[in-house]
Amino acid sequence: MKKLIFIILFPQICYGVELSGYFRSGLVISNSGANPECFQTPGTSVKYRLGNECETYAELNLEQELKRENQPSTYKVVAGTAYVVPGTQDWETFSPALRQIYASTGLSKSSITPIATLWIGKRFYRRHDIHINDFFYWDNSGPGAGIENLNIGLFKTSLAVRQTISNEQLPVNAYDIRSHDIKTPVGDFTLGVDYRSTSSTYRFDGVMLNFIYQLDTSIAGSNKFVVQFGNGIAANLSGNSDTTLSTTSRSFRIIDQWIYNTNSSHSALWTGIYEQRHDDTQWISTGIRSISYISNNINLALELGFDQKSHSSGKKARLSKITIAPQYSTGKGFWARPTLRVFLTYAFWNNDSKALAEADTLLSRNNSGFNTGFQAEAWW
What we know:
It contains three helices and 20 strands. The chain is mainly β.
């Protein structure tokens, strides 16, 4: 079914093209009677998302594998776009974003199995995220080149160079070195160094260090523990650099994430985040989404989320939300999609959140609110 439309339109060119993607879309009704507003703590970049996404968002990717005769390597070409619209009316114009366009090939000697993958172009690069608040805490996506999954025995190594534009519109070169799939009897480890420079002479302007420990069990689920440190222009703890920062700027972040997806009657994802920034701000966040299965397709999701952002002024913006959502999914499992859901979301926040909120918004006027609505979410 994925390939059908392409094969019909371009039977010679597009045979074998794979279509993959993601979308979320629906209807949000605000209790205030105004335009729908979702609930996010002032000063934070993410929010707990179940029943708390007011926009329509989609990604579409095309992938083609090319095999040459008498060559052991397979070549792959990927192109992907994304778009977002408010999702409040029928006709909404948009400008798609080019998220991926790259080519890759396996590096082999004489065997069929490649020893590594060579890639060049613009791509999503080995991203790590927390699904329930859509937080991509390690995301070095963008234009670049690299050698990925180089098998050197006890673990694998990936090397990449990429370029981004900073908040001051300055080009930043980043050199990403990762050792991953480090398997031990007590779990798997990933280590990463992201060296950044605004100079072609590789001058040091900042570095981001990443450590991940993951333990998978058949009974208790999977737990991932993350420690991140950034200094200099990487002290914003992001894939994009802040060139207003000096090499003395320092920040760190600790994350724990637990996924329980081994029971036929229940699944859950919990996370906790602590972040201390170079500008004396602090972010504390915790949330859980729990799903109880009524039948193979019908389930009930409950999500609780809390964020606190402490500012250097002394203000502490706090926001809590709770969502209950009956869902109809393709089957059991936390990652089962497509999912069609009906939701009710209630949120409340403190006076510091009101003071720090954008003017003339629901957060700036009240201390609580609720939304109802419908949403479809799918990936394939």
